[in-house]
Amino acid sequence: MSASANNVADTPLDVAAIKADFPLLSRQVNGQQIVYLDSAATSQKPRQVLNALNSYYEEINANVHRGAYQIAEQATSATEEARAHLQRFINAPSDNEIVFTKNATEAINLVAYSWGRTNLNEGDSVLITALEHHANIVPWQQLATERGVEIRWLPITDDGCLDMVDLEQMLDGVSLFAFSAASNVLGTLTPVRHLADAAHAAGALCLVDASQAVPHLLTDVTEWDCDFMAFTGHKMCGPTGIGVLWGRAELLDAMPPFLGGGEMILNVTREGFIPNELPWKFEAGTPPIAEIIGLGSAVSYLESIGMDAVRAHEVALTDYALCTLKERHGDDLIIHGPAATGDRGGVLSICYRDVHPHDLSQVLDQRGICVRAGHHCAKPLMKVLGVGATARASLYIYNDKTDVDLLSDALAEAGEFFSHQPA
Ligand SMILES: Cc1ncc(COP(=O)(O)O)c(C=O)c1O
Predict the structure, then answer these.
(1) What is the 412 CA–ligand 1 centroid distance (Å)?
(2) Which member of 226, 237, 351, 377 is catalytic?
(3) Structural domains of the chain in order of their starting residue, each with its CATH number
(4) Is 370 in the active site?
(5) How far is the CA of 104 from the centre of ligand 1 (A)?
(6) What is the bridge-based pairing of β-strands 390-394 and 347-352?
(7) Ligand 1 in reach of 125 Cβ (< 6 A)
């Protein structure tokens, strides 16, 4: 760890002002002021995003790309402006490459169904890693069952980083390397550009699951040089029900539509259909209009803080949390994942003595502290870690040192409480 608990860099964010933007954070639970430490599952939403959702419904609620009347045109413009905004936010070459999906899971499934079923057959291989969320495992397993595609697993080191010693060998003959940019269990940040370069050198494409990265750090698909990237709106201050698939235009162009219906066609006759242009070819049916506009507003909100400041805050607070929790709880506490904050985000997967994570989270809940207990949709990773579950505290822009201190106090209380329980 790079700093002692008493010597931690101050965060660049005015957390009190940010907290005031999030109405839910002013409420109490179980008679206590809420301490929300579950942003890796979903972030809270600022008033600015809630207002954007409301304004859509109150002022311009109409279907998009269809009506020739004013509010329909306004709804269409707002939707397409949000798309262009997302394009700039991740530095994609064109807004045609921004495909709106329901969430990151659907974005990855889109690639597995459309690109995967067009390009992969028996004897082909996909490389994934031991860090993956089920969303970046199961779609490939479905393909493996259906097509006889081989799935290879890149292992991790003892401190939760990718073990890249055999990367070149493991990529040999692989068609796609699908990996996360940041682990939702260990917080591990992966070297995306290096992995993309290795995939390309082996003749493979790469897909980045950036669900835990886009909300927390400056994301640049051009700099990363990846081929597909998936992320989800609700973890980045946006609404639920909206995610993004970004893909290189030439790849998306060559892929067949995923779902069929309205919006995704240029023409339909009794004999067949002609698919629409990008990106609408992949957006069958009425899109989640309010959610798209809400996601655009979430991007504006994050930009107003600045993604460099978001990351700097997270590094400082994670440093503080790693130091202060270890100093106070010593060997009673295991925090899985990389020790150095440069290698990780603010996701702290905790095992406390032999207290079951579900019991721990219930005791914390009595103190108003929200953490997640379970396998975090990463069961193969849990197996590697040798645990069935962890309690996961995850930090975001509205958390501060006081939240970490309250967590630390509540852990001590939980330890005290369970030490008096019969075995
Ligand atoms: C790394 C990672 N990938 C994918 C997902 C799936 O996100 P969603 O459920 O919004 O599709 C999550 C959600 O926890 C995640 O943490």
Answers:
(1) 31
(2) 377
(3) 15-45+306-419 (3.90.1150.10), 49-304 (3.40.640.10)
(4) no
(5) 6
(6) antiparallel
(7) no
Q: Rounded to whole angstroms, how far apart are CA atoms 59 and 45?
A: 21
**Burial level of 411, CB count in 10 A (0-12/13-18/19+)?**
buried
Q: Ligand 1 pocket: which of 186, 209, 232 to mutate (most atoms <8 Å of CB)?
A: 232
Q: Which of 192, 295, 310, 305 is CA-nearest to residue 239?
A: 295
The number of the ligand 1 atom at minimal distance from the alpha carbon of 106 is 11
Return the residue matching tokens 């495909």.
99
Tell if the pTM clears 0.85, that is, is over it. Answer: yes
The pLDDT averaged over each successive group of 10 residues in the chain (423 residues) is 45 94 97 97 98 98 92 97 98 98 98 98 97 98 97 97 98 98 98 98 98 98 98 98 98 98 95 97 98 98 98 97 96 95 96 94 96 96 96 98 97 87 61
**Residue for token digits 């972030």?**
43
The angle that helices 357-366 and 401-419 make with each other, rounded to 10 degrees, is 120
Does the beta carbon of 232 lie inside 6 Å of ligand 1?
yes
Residue 43 CB–ligand 1 contact under 6 Å = no
Ligand 1 center from residue 185 Cα (angstroms): 11
Q: 3-state SS of the chain: helix, strand, coil percent to 5?
A: 45, 20, 35
CB of 152 closer than 8 Å to CB of 174: yes
Nearest ligand 1 atom to alpha carbon 132: 1
Residue 190 CB–ligand 1 contact under 6 Å: no
Rounded Cα distance between 268 and 32, Å, is 58
Size (the chain), residues: 423
The CB of 135 under 6 Å from ligand 1? The reply is yes
| CA-closest candidate to residue 297, choices 362, 210, 236 | 236
Listed residue (370, 74, 350, 415) closest to 185, CA to CA: 350
Q: 11 in ligand 1 pocket by Cβ < 6 Å? A: no
Distance between CA atoms of residues 276 and 265, nearest Å: 4
- Within 147-288, strands assigned E span 150-154, 174-180, 205-209, 228-232, 243-247, 265-269, 272-275
Q: What is the CA radius of gyration of the chain?
A: 22
